[in-house]
Every structure is written in structure tokens, then in C-alpha cells.
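FAQ

Q: What does a record look like?
A: Structure on top, sequence underneath. For example:
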């Protein structure tokens, strides 16, 4: 990528036209991280929440040493819950386990369910076994989306001991919950997982049944008897 092209994008990010700024930010997807991040930073305080959201997400993809402290600051201090949720999600993409404690605090203390949801998802993305207690607690959340996030994340961290906690969701009225369970059990090899997955292959919702079949195949290919 030539310097003039970067200068063109930089100028476009300062355009009074929102569409111009959005196009410029999108064009950074082809730019190396070390060149892209300084330009992404230019719109982190943009008047458009949509553009700010795109920029925060981009920091999770274009990874440099600058991204982590910026995202932590947004998660801890931004007054807009949507931006805090975006930052929590981007931290999961970074995969930096230093974020564990901040994400855990966000899950416990943030007043908005969307931030707590993003924190739970990212705790799974970090694949840090320390998240177990938080995720087990999230299974009892009154928000179904938080239950879904916790089910998926427990599979991501491969917490086989959580299988007993997860199996009660095989009877959930929400098919998305059952689908998340089927997907998660594919990462949790155990006789109980196999039994539950065989049950879920007969689920009335085709997405659940298909997810269960895929998970059974995954367990079989990984050497687990089904």
C-alpha cells in the first residue's frame, strides 16, 4: 500500500460526509495493522456511533500493541453501553488473556445486558479456564441471550466439568438455546455429551438437529466413541 493511498484514506476520514468516512474506514481492511491503527484512532471519537462501532471492531482485527489499552479504556470508561459492548467484543478477538479480569469485572458490574453478553462471549474467545465460575453463574441469568453466551463459552474453554450444568438446557423452550448447547457439547467429549447429542439429533427444530449431528461427527473424528 503506497503512502499516497494512505494519505488519501486519512484525508477521507476527516470528510464532513459520514459516508466518505465509513468508506475510508472500510478501505483499511486491506492495510497492514501498523499503518491502519493510527488511522482508525482518528474516528474513535466520531460523532457517528455507527462509525465509532466500526472503528472499535477494527481494533480487534488490526492488532498492534496500541489496541489493547485503547479497548480497555473504552470498556471501562465510555458512557455509551453500545461502545462498551463493542470494546468487550473486540477484546475477545484480540485474544489477550490480560483482558480476563477486566472482562470479568464488566460481566459482574456493568448495568447493561449487552455489555455483559459481549463480555461473556469474549471470555469464551479467550479460552481461559478461569472464566468457568463466571460462566456457570451466567447460566442462571434471567436474560436468555446471556444463557446462550455462557453455554457457547463453556464449550470454547472446553470445561468438561460443566456438562452436568449444561444438560438441563436440552429441554429449553428456546431452540437457539438448544442449538448453542448442541454446538458446545461438540467441544466437551464425555459419555453424557454423546448421549445428549444423540437425543438432540432428533430435535424438532432442524437447526438443532443438524448442529447435534455435526458435533457428534466432531467427537467421533477426535477419537471419542459415539
Amino acid at each position: 500500500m503506497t503512502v499516497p493511498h494512505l494519505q488519501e484514506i486519512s484525508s477521507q476520514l476527516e470528510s464532513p460526509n459520514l459516508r466518505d468516512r465509513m468508506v475510508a474506514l472500510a478501505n483499511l481492511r486491506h492495510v497492514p495493522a501498523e499503518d491502519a491503527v493510527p488511522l482508525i484512532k482518528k474516528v474513535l471519537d466520531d460523532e457517528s456511533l455507527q462509525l465509532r462501532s466500526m472503528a472499535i471492531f477494527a481494533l480487534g482485527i488490526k492488532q498492534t500493541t496500541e489496541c489493547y489499552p485503547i479497548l480497555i479504556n473504552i470498556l471501562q470508561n465510555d458512557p455509551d453501553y453500545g461502545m462498551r459492548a463493542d470494546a468487550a467484543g473486540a477484546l475477545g478477538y484480540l485474544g489477550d488473556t490480560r483482558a480476563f479480569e477486566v472482562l470479568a469485572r464488566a460481566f459482574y458490574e456493568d448495568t447493561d445486558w449487552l455489555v455483559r453478553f459481549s463480555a461473556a462471549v469474549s471470555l469464551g474467545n479467550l479460552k481461559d479456564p478461569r472464566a468457568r465460575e463466571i460462566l456457570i453463574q451466567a447460566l442462571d441469568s434471567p436474560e436468555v441471550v446471556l444463557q446462550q453466551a455462557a453455554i457457547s463459552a463453556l464449550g470454547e474453554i472446553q470445561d468438561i466439568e460443566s456438562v452436568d450444568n449444561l444438560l438441563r438446557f436440552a429441554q429449553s423452550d428456546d431452540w437457539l438455546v438448544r442449538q448453542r448447547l448442541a454446538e458446545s457439547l461438540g467441544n466437551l467429549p464425555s459419555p453424557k455429551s454423546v448421549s445428549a447429542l444423540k437425543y438432540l439429533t432428533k430435535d424438532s427444530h432442524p437447526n438443532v438437529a443438524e448442529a447435534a449431528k455435526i458435533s457428534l461427527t466432531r467427537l467421533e473424528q477426535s477419537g471419542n466413541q459415539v
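Q: Is there anything notable about this one?
A: The longest helix spans residues 206-221.
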